[in-house]
Write a structure and sequence with these properties.
Elements (H helix, E strand, L loop, with lengths): L16 H28 L5 H5 L3 H13 L2 E2 H8 L3 H13 L3 E5 L7 E5 L1 H11 L1 H11 L3 H32 L3
Antiparallel strand pairs: 1-3, 2-3
Helix pairs in contact: 3-6, 4-5
């Protein structure tokens, strides 16, 4: 398999040890990014993914992903999250209701508010889309030796740690900016 260097990779031209170390680090990052992109492309070629058979528009998929993540939402809140008006949202919701993927019900506390949530079929579809690559990834990992799996596990732990740190830093910065 041929690995292509990422277009953003530029070899170090300096001669100091620090510059060489930074250049080596950038090369490694570029190689990892290139491999990750190749892996994503290989997984994306799997046409058994439920996304390909769903016939959802991008807007409908966004609605269903938001409902999957946040649960039942008021129509106005969902419209704000999507950045669309109430009328535009209404049409998108209507089409998903007809497909029995989402429901629209009255809010128990305020009859003027319509709550939008996933149906069982909608939940199953979104879960299938989100977890589509899991079986393929498990099959791929099962081909590795125990030693190779240890390396992959350690690398994943490092990435999760740094992603968590970054999320915490961004949340703290957001709180600082909002004056809390």
């Amino acid at each position: 398999m041929v690995f292509h260097r990422a277009p953003w990779y530029r070899p170090a031209t300096g001669t100091s040890q620090k510059e060489q170390a930074l250049g080596q680090k950038e090369k490694l990052i570029a190689d990892i990014m290139g491999s990750s992109i190749q892996l994503e492309h290989l997984f994306a070629d799997d046409r058994s993914d439920p996304l390909f058979s769903s016939h959802l528009t991008m807007s409908q998929l966004k609605i269903m992903l938001l409902l999957s993540r946040h649960g039942t939402l008021a129509g106005g809140e969902l419209a704000r999250m999507l950045g669309v008006g109430a009328a535009a949202l209404s049409g998108m919701v209507d089409r998903l209701v007809v497909q029995d993927l989402i429901t629209r019900t009255e809010d128990v506390n305020d009859r003027r508010v319509r709550r939008i949530g996933l149906t069982k079929a909608g939940t199953e579809l979104i879960e299938g889309i989100i977890t589509a690559g899991v079986a393929k990834q498990r099959e791929l990992l099962s081909r590795l030796s125990a030693e190779e799996l240890t390396i992959v596990a350690q690398a994943m732990e490092l990435l999760v740690r740094e992603a968590g740190s970054q999320a915490a830093e961004e949340a703290a910065a957001g709180e600082d900016c909002s004056g809390r």
